[in-house]
Amino acid sequence: MTAENQIDLFNLSSIPDASPPLIDPEQIPTDSKIFIPVGTYATMDAMKQHCNRCYRCELGHTRTNAVVGEGNLNADIMIVGEGPGQTEDATGRPFVGRSGELLDKILAAVKLTRDQDVFICNVVKCRPPENRDPKPAEAAACKGYLLEQIRLVDPKIILLTGKIALLNLLGIKQGITKVRGQWIEQDGRLYMPIFHPAYLLRNQSREVGQPKWLMWQDVQAVRTKLDELRQ
Question: Which of 10, 29, 129, 222 is the most buried (most CB within 10 A)?
């Protein structure tokens, strides 16, 4: 090896920088191509400011209010839905209206409340038109916000209500009816897919084996697991 080659070998200035490029956080709400790094937000309020002026996807152009989340910021349980509906869009609050009332009753049945025990949010923070499912690109544009919410709250248990939440957080394509009630451990947390309250409103039977009966089994299992984790 020549002396010139030895000099080149130790010339660190010629080695490409492998670290990710620095981003301007103010670009996050403007372009879905801007990655949301872990640790971007120190508080949920800081994230809310971005979400309320976010146009990372087309949903930003049709929303009334971004629906970021609600509940205990240190909750042991996080509930993740699919996306805001009409009432949520109007109020800026997740799971209100008939679905929200039913969810609160389900939680109360096992002595849980959204104020003390849970934090509730959605895969996408803005309402899809006509309450359709969020498109994959919309969910992808919003995923960084959701992951930051999980980091900030740091829940022990995450309940996934509906197939969109199941797919986007765990990558599972099976329907909820196939996997509901099962504990899935990932990244040091326990996940359970459960029926969405809106689905239960369409299936009112309480007979054994029907969705409402199954939901009662699931929420009791969640209460039992939570008690075990708190010991």
Answer: 222
